[in-house]
Amino acid sequence: LATGPGQNNSIFYEIRTYDIKPSKMKEFVEMANKYLHLRTAHSELVGFWSAELGAMNKVVHIWKYDNFAHRTAVRRALANDRDWQGKFLSPALALIEKQHNEVAYLVPWCQLGKPPKEGGVYEWVTFQMKPGGPALWGEAFQAAINAHVNTGYTKLIGVFHTEYGLLNTVHVMWWNESPDHRAVGRHSAHEDARVVAAVRDSVRFLESQQNMLLIPLQCSPLK
Questions:
Q1: Are 43 and 65 a contacting pair, CB within 8 Å?
Q2: Contact yes or no for 36/219 (Cβ under 8 A)
Q3: Residue pLDDT tens, the chain, 223 long
Q4: How many whole angstroms separate alpha carbon 29 and alpha carbon 84?
Q5: Which residues contact 172 (CB under 8 A, 6 or more apart)?
Q6: CA angle 106, 48, 210 (to 5 degrees)
Q7: 134 touches 80 (CB < 8 A)
Q8: What is the bridge-based pairing of β-strands 169-176 and 121-129?
Q9: In this protein, which residues make up the domain named NIPSNAP (predicted)?
Q10: Mind listing the domains of the chain with CATH numbers?
């Protein structure tokens, strides 16, 4: 989980979260679906989702960069892209109440995954861990995640830890066929002794936890 020299490579992910004006959510989603190809012409989009449960009028999108120089070059190109600026960015800014971004790395023991099929839902779980970093809580956290993976009821998409933003934060993205499928799986996991033991060990290092149920937009590569 360590950053710096412990990273396997320089690839990182920018996680952007926008709060949209309640009356403008439909308009924002329609604009994103129509014009986001202008943005993805510059760099790779991992996924784009709207919150269904756990938050309202919120979107989350994740962008992949080779390194920080790559991001700088992309941002410069976007500033000079008249189509992007005029057709999407300028109109969209009037619909957004708040923007937040983080830079995160995939943990070394997790590869970015894909769902087995389209049409499911995504769960975005944010864990705020105790100060001290992965040297303190990394092994216990990994064991808790793997215990859930081993139940088989859910698909792990990615585990991201922050480099810029609130530190000691880990975001975990899961995929399920439906909210009801997730609910049944979670109930079974809570009765699984292996999961209970792993979670009990991990929560010693946990300060807070929050989750959202996300629905992919039409323009999202992960659907």
A1: yes
A2: yes
A3: 444 434 568 999 999 999 999 999 999 999 999 999 999 999 999 999 999 999 999 999 999 999 999 999 999 999 999 999 999 999 999 999 999 999 999 999 999 999 999 999 999 999 999 999 899 999 999 999 999 999 999 999 999 999 999 999 999 999 999 999 999 999 999 899 999 999 999 999 999 999 999 999 999 999 9
A4: 16
A5: 124, 125, 127, 145, 156, 158, 159, 160
A6: 65
A7: no
A8: antiparallel
A9: 13-111, 122-221
A10: 12-104 (3.30.70.100), 106-216 (3.30.70.100)
Distance CA 222, CA 138 (A): 27
The residue type of 52 is E
The residue assigned the tokens 């979107």 is: 59
